[in-house]
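Final paragraph of the annual report: two paired records, presented back to back.
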Amino acid sequence: MTLQSKRSLIRLAGWSSLAAAAALVGCGKKDEAPTAAAPASAAPAKAEPLKIAFAYVGPVGDGGWTFAHDNARKALEKEFGDKIVTSFVEKVPEAADAERVFRDMAGQGNKLIFGTTFGYMEPMLKVAADLPDVKFEHATGYKTAPNMRTYDSRTYEGAYMAGVIAGGMTKTNTIGVVGSIPIPEVIRNINSFTLGAQSVNPKVKTKVVWVNKWFDPPQETEAAQSLMNGGADVLMQNTDSSAVLQTAEKAGKYAFGWDSDMTAYAPKAHLASAVINWAPYYIKATQDALGGTWKGDERSWWGVKEGAIDLVSISDKVPAELKARAEAAKAGLKDGSLVIWKGPITGNDGKEVLAKDAVADDKFLGGINFFVKGVEGKVPGGDKK
């Protein structure tokens, strides 16, 4: 029986008693109509959406790193609908200004904040200590806190798969990489690109030019041209724009897209794109926050196996046999049968860095500061061990 029905019965019983009393005293008055029922209680208020903010190091239109993060943010909105509200700030420097941006995001009511580049680590750590009720997520870093955790993608897996194709496509046995900043992530990618190429063509050597920035198309262009002047005929970059690919096309050389599918920028030069899909992790992190299971002091590092890394849009210019080798590498990374960093591996100084059959763990991979055999030159600061 509903509450409303119960109220009606009580009201009816009350009026019956009054009528009986009136008859006893011979009052002879007519019963008055009962008052209107009280309105049903209002439905509970709808929960406020979770506010989520993203800090981007580059412009959303860079076609690479930041573009990939923003695509994942859009996928997040599609996944959760009105349960969340997202926002972003682009071109946030890896400097003290990042701290101001994080504090401003929290001040606007954002309870889950993503910082999408390595240089945000210290500013985010500082803000997290002051705002324990806000959840912070830092990309590519290694420091955590009770309300801050890190996430990363195994970009070196994409670099390796690209290397497989590069090793088969080079005519000069020289491939080149435009490096951004000499941190372990980038060094690991250069080495993995080389290892992938050497798995097909042991004669391959790799040249590297550093630009010391994540996004600087003019410098990336200049670096790419320098590599080609030095004999490299297949290029990769660990920078955020499509400048390297476009420069290769103008010179009649080959190159790869990085972080996002860059086919459209230079279709004649494009061999494939090593892409990152951040959506699986962003969806998980948001679900954790909504479901009350989010925990700080955690680290996540996802790759091909988790759907975070892929090699896409392999060009028709790539021979079928070579494409099959790249696809086999992808399948091996997915099921675990392929281990990229397995000994014997030697540094370019001739010293063994991984003994035969030894497998590098994540601690080893996270601290790489050397070049493998075949990569020319020295890592800036790499002598400090």
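The closing record of the year follows.
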Amino acid sequence: MELRSLLEKLEYTVENGTLDKEVSAVVYDSRKVEKNCLFICIKGMNFDGHDYVTEVINKGAAVLVVEQEIVLPQTTDVTVIKVADTRYAMAFISAAWFGNPAEKLKVIGITGTKGKTTTTYLVKSMLENAGRKVGLVGTIETIIGDTHIHANNTTPESYLLQEYFKQMVDAGCDTVVMEVSSQGLKLHRTQGFVFDYGIFTNLEPDHIGVGEHADFEEYLACKGLLFKQCKVGLVNGDDAHCDAVIAGHTCTIEKFGLNSGNDLVATNLQLVKKPGELGVSFTTNGLLSMDVEVTTPGRFSVYNALTAIAICRHFGVSEEDIKKALLAAKVKGRIEMVKVSDDFTLLIDYAHNAMSLESLLKSLKEYEPNRLVCLFGCGGNRSKIRRYEMGEVSGNLADLTIITSDNPRFEEPQDIIDDIKTGIAKTNGKYVEICDRKEAIAYAIDHGEPGDIIVLAGKGHEDYQEIKGIKYPMDERNLIADILTERN
């Protein structure tokens, strides 16, 4: 492509060379530089692309995009483009490189602390029931037609995101629903296009620390960036931080929630309890009036469903298609029911910190189980505080905690278990410790009593266990199947 075309929507200065160049590729990884490419100097946590200027010029890069002064070889005709922020510039350059594919799609972006993953799958299911062809970008995977691509980040780098959009257009997609992380917004991964719909689910303190957000205020501000980059904002009006998140918005706003005063309201919540299955039903009022049932438990399931309904209303999805999708939608590792018995309920969930575990267990207690059994471990080489907190939450809320191994990484599993026990010791909760996760799950199944709810928490959608730098295959669904086969 012509360099001028790639820079069309950016403010920049030409520090060296000329704009009259053809670019063979857009690259931001120095290992992938090729002759006549455009190289974007990105600053990362552990590296800085500006340090590789001489190397990439020697490899044949024709254009450099920089945000700071660099030292060039004495004789070079390489073009140097200076911008205020190279990550911001990369988003627009990437969009131009792939032909601005977002302009050919309806783009739905969902941000919030919890509920993003579940809601993206609900929306995809609903819209496809209504005849649309929908791509998905999220924490678990990217889906393009029949292709499923494992995700490394909730929101990919801008270049990869634009490449996915282009592939979706080529595959005949007319819509994309994506999770938008606070890091993705902070690092400008979602610049270069405008969302048709921006959604806010909820906000709680999370992702605060080295390499993420300096404090809660920054976390909140980054979430709010979505509402300066979308046409219509659909937000959870019940959330205490809602008004702060949408402050300064440039879009129209609709609010949904359980409280009166929202534009779309869920009322008459009823718990649904069937053999081996938990759900909830409710009625919507306001912008849409209908009776709804979902096959996942708890108040947060109502919010997830309400979010999806608020979105799909704008696409003219019929009541029948909405109801059908909500009953059928399943999200791997998100309150995922696995049928093992008519006597008790077993589910898998990704709850891997105290906040999410507490929310899950409190929701399940509302179903008045005979016993609430919680099986979990904690990741190695991560905060010990998380272990203490999760132990304390489970000790307070579960009738029995089964402490086991998660991803020990480079720590000893028993050391992690001992940290969890420190938290449980602050409570009167009963517990057993079984280090091997398969044995722990077998214990939970073998000792299940009529009316029990058993939660396998922490692994969720993950299909591996990471031990000393190696990811070994381990999917809890397969472990359950093996256990049931062995018992039979």
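The mean pLDDT is 94. This concludes the annual technical report; the extension proposal builds directly on these records.
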